[in-house]
């Protein structure tokens, strides 16, 4: 049987409980089901690939913003900070999880277990905070028509987000929360406890890391989608009335109804769509981990079930996928990012053809196409 107690006694100090951890706690309980060896090897290899992609892809984002002053807008500074948090997550957390998945034992000591748990939540909270700031900024611009975020304010908010994330994640490293050395998970996870203080902290951590940001971002994006839809309908209706007015003045009532206008709306929706995709990726990667953590803290049967190790491995792997997801989306959606990737690549690796730019002319939000041979602004 493992040395762990089923809960951390509320009257027991963190130091006393931490000393109780010994080498035997790092060994896997034979009653727990683990992944087959070939699957563990495959997952470890995939995680190494994720580390490489997450580091290189996010490093390109940071280099673009650092080397090109013209790219240091408020939104780009936020995206660079998001990329930096993903780099830190890829370097300081993912390698140890990959090794533990492969060996099925934690070989880095109990002290570093708590440090790794703190770093995990620290970088995750920072990434979530940046996504939340970006979402609120898009909401203010598109819905409220208030563009208040400049580079100086963005820098202040970045500093505040780092400080806030550190304060929320720090209790796990000093023992204010029950974090178990992974005999039943490939890295330190929130463990089952009946102590009200520990449960309260776990709820606060998960609410801060997922539920509150998810709710605010979901509300913001629903409002943005509704605003974009209403504006699109208004522009189309206005263009149709302009066309009919011109036909009436010319006395051409027998002609067919003019063609619907051809408005290039990508100037207005493409950047928002990219942020929306990041939000969807965040939700899909983090919802399973959030549910898993809550059940670990509150459900004794789930935490001590034979399938807990397999479940924890899968949800942790999925949560790390987010750090790889962002640069893939940038490469897919942002032309400048693709061009910068080609610039940073050695010439011997530039085997892909240059991506052609857009040929369709972009228009201002106040410009529409009317039913004539020429384009005019209204």
Automatic annotation (TrEMBL):
Topology in membrane: Multi-pass membrane protein
Domain G-protein coupled receptors family 1 profile: 57-330
Keywords from the UniProt entry: Cell membrane, G-protein coupled receptor, Glycoprotein, Membrane, Receptor, Transducer, Transmembrane, Transmembrane helix
One Gene Ontology cellular component: plasma membrane
Membrane in keyword set: yes
PROSITE patterns named among the record's database cross-references: G_PROTEIN_RECEP_F1_2 (PS50262)
Pfam families recorded: 7tm_1 (PF00001)
Record-annotated membrane-spanning stretches: 39-66, 78-106, 118-136, 156-179, 199-224, 271-289, 309-332
Example of a GO MF term: G protein-coupled receptor activity
Localization (cell): Cell membrane
Name of the protein: G protein-coupled receptor 45
Source organism (scientific name): Podarcis muralis
């Amino acid at each position: 049987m493992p040395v762990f107690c089923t809960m951390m006694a509320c009257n027991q100090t963190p130091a006393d409980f931490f000393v109780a951890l010994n080498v035997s706690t790092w060994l896997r309980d034979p009653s727990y089901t683990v992944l087959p060896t070939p699957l563990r090897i495959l997952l470890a290899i995939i995680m190494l690939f994720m580390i490489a992609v997450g580091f290189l892809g996010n490093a390109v984002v940071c280099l673009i913003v650092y080397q090109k002053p013209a790219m240091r807008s408020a939104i780009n500074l936020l995206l660079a900070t998001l990329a930096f948090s993903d780099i830190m997550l890829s370097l300081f957390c993912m390698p140890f999880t990959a090794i533990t998945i492969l060996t099925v034992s934690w070989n880095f000591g109990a002290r570093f277990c708590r440090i790794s748990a703190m770093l995990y939540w620290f970088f995750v909270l920072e990434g979530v905070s940046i996504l939340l700031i970006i979402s609120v900024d898009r909401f203010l611009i598109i819905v409220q028509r208030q563009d208040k975020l400049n580079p100086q304010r963005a820098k202040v908010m970045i500093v505040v987000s780092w400080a806030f994330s550190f304060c929320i994640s720090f209790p796990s490293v000093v023992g204010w929360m029950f974090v178990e050395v992974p005999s039943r998970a490939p890295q330190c996870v929130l463990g089952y406890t009946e102590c009200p203080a520990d449960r309260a902290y776990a709820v606060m951590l998960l609410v801060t890391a997922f539920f509150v940001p998810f709710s605010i971002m979901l509300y913001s994006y629903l409002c943005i989608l509704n605003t974009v839809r209403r504006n699109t309908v208004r522009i189309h209706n206005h263009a149709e009335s302009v066309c009919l007015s011109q036909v009436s003045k010319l006395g051409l009532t027998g002609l067919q109804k003019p063609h619907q206008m051809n408005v290039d709306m990508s100037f207005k929706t493409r950047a928002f769509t990219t942020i929306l995709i990041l939000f969807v990726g965040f939700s899909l990667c983090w919802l399973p981990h959030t549910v898993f953590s809550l059940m670990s803290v509150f459900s004794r049967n789930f935490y001590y079930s034979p399938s807990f190790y397999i479940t924890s491995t899968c949800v942790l792997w999925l949560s790390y996928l987010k750090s790889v997801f962002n640069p893939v989306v940038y490469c897919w959606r942002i032309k400048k990012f693709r061009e910068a990737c080609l610039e940073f690549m050695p010439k011997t690796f530039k085997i892909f053809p240059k991506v052609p730019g857009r040929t369709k002319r972009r228009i201002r939000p106040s410009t529409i196409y009317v039913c004539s041979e020429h384009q005019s602004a209204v």
